[in-house]
Design a protein that fits this description.
Elements: H1 2-26, E1 29-35, H2 40-57, E2 62-68, H3 73-85, E3 90-94, H4 96-105, E4 111-116, H5 119-122, E5 138-142, H6 147-157, E6 163-169, H7 173-189, E7 194-200, H8 206-214, E8 219-222, H9 226-229, H10 232-242, E9 246-248, H11 251-257, E10 260-263, H12 266-281, E11 293-294, E12 299-302, H13 304-309, E13 319-320
Parallel strand pairs: 1-2, 1-3, 3-4, 4-5, 5-11, 6-7, 6-8, 8-9, 9-10, 12-13
Antiparallel strand pairs: 10-12
Helix pairs in contact: 2-12, 3-4, 6-7, 8-10, 10-11
């Protein structure tokens, strides 16, 4: 009798193990992607994220629901809430407002950010130490580059520059951080240089703001501001005729309407976020303990067409962007 009972128990255990294995094999992951706005950099990050998970999980084992908020904060909130209510296995939030909306919508579903410059600011505490993770259901990859590299860009290309205008959208907190960091870096590199900030509220007043900013400056700096990035033709239409060197936060902005940048690959930071997502979904990694990741080896790049248009000769150690 005991042997039969033991045999039955072992059989049940084997059946349960097989069922568990089969369930794991049959799992189809539901991933929500909230992208703040459509432009080349964010598009590249989203694509990198999707490519990694599709490759690692298999195209039949992952379903992406990609939603674009078209730059509207209320739409971000609506999409994030929908993802949370639908019980996504993981959410990728592309840009800071998207991340903040997803954080507010769920405290249990893993939320990975990309194209977020400063996670401490995004999380509401600029003094946070994120070296051991955030301690909550949020982590991701930063698109941040040391502000000193941008300040040095100004001095390399426009060594006589004493007036630098900074333009960004007032609704984007990461742009404020980047501007503050840039001003501090410029003060270290050239204490005599004066930085002036010009903020626009939305695309309706962006052109007028840029026009005011270029009236009396030697160079113009635009951080990785999503609203600006989506409307760089406005910047070019104003700055190119004025022959103002425009230094941008990232490569795709420069390609459309700037002179030079310190470039990272947004596709690569998307891939990094995809690797993190795989570790969470399949490897059981605790997102709360995952440190924020960063891109490696920024590269100095420039737009040959913009340089030619303003009569600018670039140093040899700058790489031309494919246009």
């Amino acid at each position: 009798m005991m042997k039969k009972l033991l045999s039955l128990v072992l059989t049940l255990c084997m059946l349960m193990a097989c069922f568990t294995f089969a369930s794991a094999e049959d799992k189809v992951y539901q991933i929500g992607i909230l992208q703040l706005v459509k432009h080349d950099a964010l598009d590249a990050a989203t694509q990198g994220f999707m490519d990694v998970l599709t490759e690692k999980l298999g195209a039949d084992k992952v379903v992406f629901e990609l939603q674009n908020a078209q730059g509207d904060m209320q739409t971000c909130t609506t999409i994030a809430t929908s993802f949370a209510n639908n019980g996504k296995d993981l959410i990728m939030a592309n840009a800071t407002p998207a991340l903040q909306a997803c954080m507010s919508a769920t405290s249990s579903i893993p939320v990975l950010g990309t194209s977020v410059t400063d996670y401490a600011v995004a999380l509401g505490d600029a003094s946070m130490d994120l070296s051991a993770g955030t301690g909550i259901n949020v982590s991701g990859v930063s698109d941040g580059v040391d502000a000193h590299l941008y300040a040095q860009l100004v001095k390399d290309l426009v060594p006589e520059a004493k007036k630098v205008s900074i333009v960004y959208c007032s609704a984007e907190p990461n742009s404020v951080v980047q501007s503050d960091n840039f001003i501090a870096a410029m003060a270290e590199i050239d204490p005599e240089a004066v930085c002036s900030v010009y903020m626009f509220n939305d695309t309706n007043d962006m052109q007028q703001t840029v026009q005011t900013a270029v009236e009396d400056c030697d160079a113009l700096y635009i951080p990785t501001d999503n609203t600006a990035a989506s409307n760089m033709t406005i910047v070019r239409n104003v700055c190119e005729p004025a022959k103002v060197p425009v230094l941008c936060g990232e490569e795709n902005m420069t390609k459309v309407g700037g002179l030079a940048t310190v470039s990272i690959s947004y596709y690569d930071i998307g891939k990094l976020a995809g690797e993190m997502a795989y570790e969470i979904l399949v490897g059981g990694a605790d997102i709360a303990a995952m440190p924020i990741a960063y891109s490696a080896n920024p590269v100095k790049k420039y737009s040959a067409s913009y340089a030619e248009a303003i009569g600018f000769t670039m140093p040899e150690d700058y790489e031309a962007i494919a246009e």
